[in-house]
Amino acid sequence: MEFLPVGPLAAAIIVIALAEGRAGFRTWGRRLLRWRVGWVWYAVALLFPAAFVLITGLITMALGASAPGLGQLTWSGLLTVFAVRLVNPLDGPLGEEPGFRGYALPLLQAARPPLLSAAILGVLVALWHVPLVLFGGLSLIGLPTTFAITFLYVWLFNRTGGSVLLTYLFHNSQGTFTVGSVGFAAADAGRAELIYFAVVVLAVLATMTLDRRAWRKAPRPATAVGRFSLRREQ
């Protein structure tokens, strides 16, 4: 059995084709390409994942850990990884975002508040990543981290009026700036992953505390599903 990140993308295409047809694809396509959002949200999408890793690294090193991989990181290397991940359908961002945030999330939010929708989607996304744990590509703490960070994806998606493009950039940045790239070894690596989980949880709690309105009701473009959404969005 092989873990294929392209699964959510393929599932969205199949379901839309069978259940909604051209109208569904038009709505889905607009959501995928929604780029007219404030510049600050581009900054959030690109910089938040890097900030999480930076904070995690600083705390871990303050606790006495060494980071041998830190000196090997270069901007050219990071930009190359970011660019490759942008166009690779067998990687997480392109394989997952069109399905999870592009189709499943609006469907959930059509009948549920954002907080409950995020919790349900978080469980689904975490379960989807279980094979990575079995194959050794993700540590066990990665599953609760995946669940927690799903709330940030939902917050970003709703705050940008249902833009999958922004969650796609967030996902891509998250995969480019990783705790593993810092090079912590053995026990230090495990401690760093726990700290990263705590940093993500604190970020989620910050959005819930400082931006409560975002969790009360999702904007209409972020809840539209199927051919009926075309009339609501026009």
Q: What are the salient characteristics of this protein?
A:
234 residues, mainly alpha, disordered C terminus
What would a concise description of this structure say?
The chain has 234 residues and is mostly helical. It has 12 helices and no strands. The chain starts with 6 loop residues before the first helix and ends with a helix.
Structure, described:
With 234 residues, the chain is mainly α. Helices cover 72% and strands 0% of the residues. It has helices at 7-19, 21-32, 39-62, 75-87, 92-109, 114-128, 130-134, 142-159, 164-176, 186-210, 213-216, 226-233. Residues 226-234 have low confidence and may be disordered.
